[in-house]
Design goal:
Elements lengths: L5 E5 L28 H7 L9 E5 L3 E2 L12 E5 L6 H13 L3 E6 L11 H4 L4 E7 L2 E4 L7 H18 L3 E4 L13 H13 L5 E4 L21 E3 L1 H12 L13 H10 L6 E3 L4 E3 L11 E4 L3 H5 L13 H13 L3 E5 L19 H15 L3 H4 L1 H4 L8 H6 L6 H4 L1 H16 L11 E7 L2 E6 L7 E6 L4 E3 L13 E8 L19 E3 L3 E9 L1
Parallel strand pairs: 1-2, 1-14, 2-5, 5-8, 8-9, 9-10, 10-13, 13-14
Antiparallel strand pairs: 3-4, 6-7, 11-12, 15-16, 16-17, 17-21, 18-20, 19-21
């Protein structure tokens, strides 16, 4: 990993893709595996990329759960790969096929609760759960109370099982802020260390979702940390969505979508590292000034964030084409570890909604009620009229609406090309492939424009200029980061304005007299000897 990885998340809705249409060939450099039917079939036709082992495919939670469809986050049989993906041997074949094509596969594991229907561990012993503690999904798991030892062993063994039996290349730990454990060794750290031991000589990577942004999770054990490799960066996502859509309601309300937020994220990881956070009425985050940007996973889309809206619309359809191209360039060229969500790499227009068929009618209605109440935190989704239009989680139609339209892989070729070329640039350019090594600095240029400079010791710097607003005449330009290296001029290496990506066409923006930034654009410059 270490800064050159692309993380790609695939989700449960792809299990029901049409079984008659096969992709024509492996062609897109997206870092993406598409899943459908069962695992035996999906590995034959699903991996559509020019892969390197520095790209990882994130597979959503695989533990079995009741119902014909669901996200997989209410697993009840933690050692049983879901039957919806086929047999255990099918899953092994899928991972082996990904490895043969040069991809690592990480598994999303849910160790913060058991699903509400079908898990009976609590009937065997009261010590599996902490009835005195709850998280938003039910009883907390007993990782630090009376007789917690066998419970901890159960989950540690589960992690080893996925690594040893299926050869997964790591984990993404779901919602770790709801895992309560005051033990000397935090359970996620213990699980991660056991997983690395189970991998033997293989290298695995470990990421976590943590709403409180606790950076101890990526610090070394001798520093009181948990030895993980990375954390999801919701700050980056929230700033990007505000910048692209102009909406800053609910948990977006502490973000402005301004250039300083992206400069700060490039240099320091989290934007909030203990400052006041009005949405929660408390400080948010913990210090990360000393951490490398590669430890933070940034994204425009993931399963939660797309579905946390009334319509489940993709980001691409909520903003202008120019802004979308520019923000995609920032995502894929920035010093963080970028993540793409299934279909994002070819501009999928299909929505992604919350769907779950778990439980009986009473439980399903309770899930529906809870989901609608959650969405009501957004004023745009809170009105009675809007609530009446929300998708019902347990209806098959909700699930079916989320399936990708594979015709869009050809229809949206400009977006496919955009992602392919940016990933190639990130991987192969002599400076960008080093990411933060050598240093990254940045500066605000105007109210909606900024620059990131990738520093080097050999006059091989790169400039990434991003303008999310209207055309800018940078006169005067009192920003030293814009100055070329000694005895060099800048030349354009890449631009989102290319007609190849649906843009108006590239123009020379830097002269001896001034800089001119095209509207809603991103440009990469490299030095050229005079």
């Amino acid at each position: 990993m270490r800064g050159r990885s692309i993380l790609v998340q695939v989700d449960r809705c792809e299990l029901a893709r049409s079984e008659t249409r096969e992709p024509d060939h492996l062609r897109d450099a997206h870092g993406h595996i598409y899943a459908r039917g069962n695992v035996a079939r999906r590995h034959r036709q699903a991996i559509r990329v020019q892969g390197k082992r520095d790209q990882l495919v994130g597979n959503d939670a695989d533990s079995d759960f009741p119902g014909r469809f669901g996200w997989g986050y209410d697993g009840v049989n933690l050692f049983a790969p879901t039957r919806l993906y086929g047999t255990p041997d099918d899953l092994r074949a899928f991972v082996d096929r990904a490895h043969a094509l040069g991809f690592g596969v990480i598994l999303d594991v849910v160790y913060n609760h058991f699903g509400p229907d079908g898990n009976y561990l609590g009937a065997f012993s009261n010590h599996y759960l902490r009835r005195d503690k709850e998280n938003e999904w039910g009883d907390a798991i007993n990782f630090d109370g009376k007789n917690c030892g066998p419970v901890r062993e159960f989950f540690i063994t589960n992690a080893r099982y996925w690594i040893e039996e299926f050869h997964f290349d790591g984990f993404r730990f779901d919602a770790t802020q709801t895992i309560f454990d005051n033990s000397e060794e935090y359970i996620i750290g213990a699980i991660g260390r056991a997983a690395r031991a189970a991998a033997g000589g293989r290298s695995i990577v470990l990421f976590a979702e943590n709403e409180r942004q606790e950076t101890k999770m990526v610090r070394a054990r001798e520093q009181g940390g948990d030895d993980l490799d990375g954390l999801w960066n919701d700050d980056w996502h929230h700033a990007a969505i505000v910048a692209l859509t102009g909406r800053n309601e609910a948990y977006y309300s502490d973000y402005m979508g301004c250039p300083q937020e992206f400069v700060s994220a490039a240099k320091y990881g989290y934007i909030y590292q203990g400052q006041p956070y009005s949405w929660q009425g408390a400080p948010r985050g913990s210090p990360s000034l000393d951490l490398r940007p590669e430890a933070f996973v940034s994204f425009l889309e993931n399963h939660d964030q797309i579905s946390n809206s009334a319509s489940g619309d993709r980001v691409r359809v909520q903003t202008s084409p120019g802004r979308y191209r520019a923000m995609t360039a920032l995502l894929l060229l920035g010093p963080w570890t970028p993540l793409l969500f299934q279909g994002e790499e070819f501009g999928a227009s299909t929505p992604f909604l919350y769907f779950s068929e778990v439980g009986d009618e009473t439980l399903r209605e309770a899930v529906k009620k809870g989901r609608f109440e959650f969405l009501a935190q957004f004023p745009s989704a809170a009105s009675e009229d809007m609530q009446a239009t929300l998708a019902v989680p347990y209806e098959m139609e909700t699930f079916n609406r989320c399936k990708l339209d594979w015709n869009e892989t050809n229809k949206n070729r400009t977006i496919s090309d955009l992602h392919r070329d940016l990933i190639k640039l990130r991987r192969e350019d002599s400076r960008l492939r080093l990411q933060s090594e050598g240093g990254v600095d940045g500066a605000v240029l105007r109210s909606q424009s900024f620059v990131l400079r990738y520093l080097s010791k050999e006059n091989d710097d790169r400039l990434l200029l991003v303008n999310l607003g209207s055309r800018e005449d940078l006169t005067p330009a009192p920003e030293p980061l814009l100055a070329p290296p000694s005895d060099c001029d800048w030349e354009i290496l890449w631009t989102s304005e290319s007609q190849h990506y649906g843009g108006p066409g590239a123009v020379d923006i830097a002269t001896d007299e001034k800089w001119i930034l095209p509207a809603e654009s991103a440009l990469v410059f490299r030095p050229r000897r005079r």
